[in-house]
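A quick aside before the break. I want you to see a complete sequence-to-structure record at least once, exactly as it would be stored in a machine-readable document. Don't worry about memorizing anything.
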Amino acid sequence: MKRTWQTVFVLFFLFAFLGNWVFARETKGPKIVIKEQVHDFKDIKEGEVIEHTFRVFNEGDETLKITKVKPG
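That is the input. The structure line, written in tokens, reads:
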């Protein structure tokens, strides 16, 4: 009986380790990276025109297609 529990214990941790290793691999495809995700404009007077540029990078290995943008 002790041998059976040892086998179950070893198999459990073996599958847990291999499962994490398989899923931890880098996935292929586009990868969007926005370094500055939030910008604080501080106090803005009514009617004042403001502008800020968010830089978007593709660190993946395929073309990144941005199909829809919603202002916050």
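Two observations worth writing down. The helical segments are 2-23. The radius of gyration is 24 Å. We'll return to this after the break.
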